[in-house]
Write a structure and sequence with these properties.
alpha/beta; five-stranded antiparallel β-sheet; 10 helices
Length: 264
Amino acid sequence: MTEPVATAKTVAAARAEAVVRIEGLSKSFDGRLVLDDVSLEVDRGRIVSVIGQSGGGKTTLMRCVNLLERPDRGTVEVAGEVVHSGGRTVCRDLPALRRTVGMVFQKFNLFPHLTAVENIVLAQRKAGIAEAEALERAVTLLRRVGVAHRGLARPDQLSGGEQQRVAIARALALRPEVLLFDEPTSSLDPESTREVLTVMRELAADGMTMLLVTHELPFAREVSDHVVFVDGGRIVEAGRPQDVLDRPAERRTREFLAAYGSAS
C-alpha cells in the first residue's frame, strides 16, 4: 500500500493540532543546567501529565511555556505562534500569551485583600473585559467549581481546597486555550485534594487542553492522554499512561515508580 504524500496543507493541519510545542528547550540557573534539550507537544483537547522527582525541572518546564521563565535555548510555540526562539523572546504581547495559557499555581496566588469574586473579576478587568460581564462570568465559574456560596469570602476565610478552586475559576475566566497546573494539590490535605481533583476531572471531561505537573500518579493514570517522566532536566520516558506507569521501559522510570509506591 502506498504511503500518503504529506502536502504543505496536511503538515500545517497536523501542526495546528498542537496548542503547545516545545523543541530543544534548555535552561540554566546560576550555571546549573535545569532543563536539557527538552521537546514536548500538547495537542488540542489532550491532557499531558509531567511526573518526576522534586527538583528535576518539571516546574521550570511549565513556567517556560508562558515565559514566566525565559529559556536559554530552544523554541516555544503556543497556539501556532512562536513566542520564544534561539534564546530570544519574540512574543510581542505577553499579557495576551498569558490569557491564552492559563496557569494554576501551587500556592493559589490570590490577592488576600479581595474576595473570591473580586479576584476573578480583577483578572478579567485587566484583560479589558467590561465589569458587568466580568462579574457574571465570575459568578458562573464559582458555581462551576463548586464554591459559589463562598464568593464573598476572602482567601484567609477559605480552606486550601476552596482557594485552589477559586484559582482555577480565575484561570478559566480568561477562556484560555490551554491550562497549566503546577502541582495544584501539593499544599492540600486529602479532602481538599479530592475536591480539586474532582474539578480537574470535570475539566478533562469537557475537553480542556491541560499540561499538568503532578505527584498524583493515580490521577495522572486516570485522566492523562500522555505521561512524561522528567529526571535530571531531561525527558527519560514518555507515552500512554498505561505504558509509562504500568510497563515502564526505562530503568530510571522503574526506580522512580518503585520509590513512589514505597512512600505511598
